[in-house]
Amino acid sequence: MSNRSAGWRRSVLLSICGLLSTAASAQNLTNGQINTVSARLAEAALQSWELGTRSQTILELNATAYSVFSNTFLPPPEVIPSELANDNVMAPFFSIARQIVSNRTRLNNNTVGPQPLMPDGSAADPASNGICVLIANWTGQDAGELDYEGAARDQLDYLLTRVPKTGDGAISHRESQVQLWNDFVYMVPPFLAYYGVMTRNRTLVAESYNQIKLYRNYLRDDRQGMWQHILLGSSGNDPGFWSTGNGWAAAGMLRVLATIRQSEYANTFRNEQRDLGNWVREIHSSIYRHLDETNIFTNYADQPPTASGNFYDAASTALLAATVYRAALMLDQYTYLPYAERSRSTLSNSNSTSSSNETSTFDNYEHFTSDGWLRPVVNPHSYGQEGSESAEGQAFVVQMHAAWREWVQDGSKGANTAMNLKLKKLIMGLALGAVLVLVL
Ligand SMILES: *[C@@H]1O[C@H](CO)[C@@H](O)[C@H](O)[C@H]1NC(C)=O
Ligand SMILES: *[C@@H]1O[C@H](CO)[C@@H](O)[C@H](O)[C@H]1NC(C)=O
Ligand SMILES: *[C@@H]1O[C@H](CO)[C@@H](O)[C@H](O)[C@H]1NC(C)=O
Ligand SMILES: *[C@@H]1O[C@H](CO)[C@@H](O)[C@H](O)[C@H]1NC(C)=O
Ligand SMILES: *[C@@H]1O[C@H](CO)[C@@H](O)[C@H](O)[C@H]1NC(C)=O
Ligand SMILES: *[C@@H]1O[C@H](CO)[C@@H](O)[C@H](O)[C@H]1NC(C)=O
Ligand SMILES: *[C@@H]1O[C@H](CO)[C@@H](O)[C@H](O)[C@H]1NC(C)=O
Ligand SMILES: *[C@@H]1O[C@H](CO)[C@@H](O)[C@H](O)[C@H]1NC(C)=O
Q1: Is 49 a domain residue?
Q2: Quick one: signal sequence residues (predicted)?
Q3: Which ligand is located closest to the Cα atom of residue 54?
Q4: From ligand 4's centre to the CA of 52, what distance in Å?
Q5: Ligand 3, atom 14: nearest CA belongs to which residue?
Q6: Is residue 9 part of a domain?
Q7: What are the start-end ranges of the H helices in 108-157?
């Protein structure tokens, strides 16, 4: 058999396998399993951006009235609605704000005035906790003891006046040198937009968009469409198309868009809202081209898993799927739903026959350990290496689940795209099979 026909056989086999796996495994994670994933998230989230990401995740799953993705008008209720108060589901959320604000003066060596919420080599990551602190202030969690408002203002002023910038005004992701990371889009602009909405400061809302626009100008690759990970600065660049970073960028843009849309500024900033929607689509259309038959992205999406330093990464896969459900709900963008559904279903798939819809455990899951850790995952503290027990990976699974759940409640709109695609695949597969039988 020639190499060429061996290659053909393999690709036919792969597409048939792909077909069977989409057909056979329409499995969902249960609420109990999502709580197990959440428990691992709570244990693992210690770094600034991990806490910030966890705080948003708590809202998206358990306190949706305070998530920008809900239909709550912003600013949100100052009095916590009774169903949330009675169940105390926001306690872990407020605990994050309380710990950060109680510790910050000591950890920042008694700095007064502009300062990050936590010390960190990253100028941007601590700001991911800013919204949590703003909500603690707004809902009166201070008990006359903690100055949440002052802590949020110091964080804002630090970003605007102390962190170095590019000549055209992009705020650096790092403290020690001007360097732009695509992660920034999740850490800073959503805070600027939320602060602007809470304090009715239009300039800050505009600035959240402006920062995204600047970052996209630097990091987006015209040919690939995806965003590069880290540029500028004298060391530590990463020009690769890091999958998680593209997910951070898409998710951050959706949060800013949602914040504007749920606020008094919804009818202004029209062009900005349109741009943000287009820029999310741009990431989806360029990155989903690289999803192979495993339905899992590689750590650098355009590189094969065999490339040196590359491997499959379920964390970015979950985050990107979450953004596809959000884009469907918010923007009627349905093209990539079949891909997100395949990824979600692959991640949720187990080979055990007896899994009930009540279970909270993970027996025989390819993509979860028995304790509920997502796998395989990039090491979130060393982005070029495979790791284990990733806090952000746990958060992305919960975010994917929360967004999927809302998409189902909303009538699974655009699921027909998925059906059509499956059908197309089936017909293509059969036709290809028939041709091969004739040729070989
Ligand atoms: C998964 O959830 C979807 C949406 O609720 C439902 O239609 C489907 O039947 C569920 N699949 C399984 C195996 O429970
Ligand atoms: C959501 O609430 C459940 C309890 O109802 C809890 O077990 C789980 O940890 C919470 N999830 C998150 C992300 O906080
Ligand atoms: C705050 O400080 C306490 C006591 O040192 C520590 O246990 C906790 O992890 C800190 N939390 C944060 C978020 O800094
Ligand atoms: C606080 O001071 C200690 C001891 O001088 C130093 O190691 C640490 O880096 C300082 N932290 C900050 C955030 O400046
Ligand atoms: C903090 O909360 C108070 C009381 O709700 C509110 O008046 C103030 O605007 C809030 N500050 C910020 C920065 O959101
Ligand atoms: C908006 O916020 C910026 C940054 O804190 C501040 O300089 C400006 O005075 C604020 N504008 C208004 C109208 O409050
Ligand atoms: C599990 O399935 C049973 C039978 O289909 C149903 O009665 C029950 O409500 C389901 N439980 C959950 C938590 O979805
Ligand atoms: C099921 O999946 C687990 C995890 O990937 C694996 O260890 C186990 O061997 C599989 N069992 C069967 C029967 O395929």
Answers
A1: yes
A2: 1-26
A3: 2
A4: 23
A5: 100
A6: no
A7: 130-138, 148-157
Name which residue sits closest to atom 8 of ligand 7, judged by CA: 357
Instruction: Pick the residue whose CA is nearest to atom 13 on ligand 5.
Output: 149
Position 91 in a domain: yes
Strand partners, 298: 312
Question: Could you read off the pLDDT tens digit of each residue along the chain, which spans 440 residues?
Answer: 344 444 445 444 444 444 444 434 448 999 999 999 999 999 999 999 999 999 999 999 999 999 999 999 999 999 999 999 988 999 999 999 999 999 999 999 999 999 999 999 999 999 999 999 999 999 999 988 999 999 999 999 999 999 999 999 999 999 999 999 999 999 999 999 999 999 999 999 999 999 999 999 999 999 999 999 999 999 999 999 999 999 999 999 999 999 999 999 999 999 999 999 999 999 999 999 999 999 999 999 999 999 988 999 999 999 999 999 999 999 999 999 999 999 999 999 998 766 677 889 999 999 999 999 999 999 999 999 999 999 999 999 999 999 999 999 999 998 877 555 566 667 677 777 676 666 66
Give the CA angle between residues 305, 234, 160 to the nearest 5°: 100
Which ligand 1 atom sits closest to the C-alpha of 357?
A: 14
The residue with tokens 């259309």 is 285
Instruction: Provide the domain limits for residue 125.
Output: 38-163
Which atom belonging to ligand 7 lies closest to the Cα atom of 356?
1
For residue 232, tell me if it sits in a domain: no
Task: Give the residue, out of 49, 99, 129, with the most ligand 3 atoms within 8 A of its beta carbon, to mutate for a pocket test.
Answer: 99
Number of domains the chain contains:
1
Global confidence as pTM: 0.91
Q: Does the Cβ of 135 fall within 6 Å of ligand 5?
A: no
Closest residue by Cα to residue 244 from 222, 227, 224: 227
Q: How far is the CA of 116 from the centre of ligand 6 (A)?
A: 18
Task: Please report, for the chain, how many H helices and E strands are present, in that order.
Answer: 16, 4
